[in-house]
Amino acid sequence: MNTEVAPAWSGFLPVPTPETAPFWDACNEGTFLLQRCRDCGKTQYHYRALCCHCWSDQVDDFASSGKGTVWTCSVVYKNNTPGYVDKLPYVVGLVELEGGVKVFGNILGDAPEAVDIGTAVEITFAKADNGQMIPLFEVAAN
Ligand SMILES: [Zn+2]
Hints:
The chain is mostly beta strands and 142 residues long.
């Protein structure tokens, strides 16, 4: 995942907590973290201190491959929210990452209408004014 030529991010910003700071710090290094539970073996997203499947606190971080496919998506044509109005139209989708977890995010591409269920996408990052790298998706190169 390349963070050197990241587009600018103008939307809402995360507010890292002590629990989520490792996730956001990893984003700044170009890594999207998932977690695997040592007790039940399941994978989870979003990032948290406990396993969402069995409540164990024995969760290990690992880097997602960043590769996934669109599970569902929608093109947004209307949004007056500052930071989003200038992106219209844009695609928001639920992406199934390798490993099975699903992640919501913006999906970048030249033609929003070309993004469809099953489209191959990859995680990329956009840079906010405060330097935080924001994960989103882009249509994978063929
Ligand atoms: Zn578990």
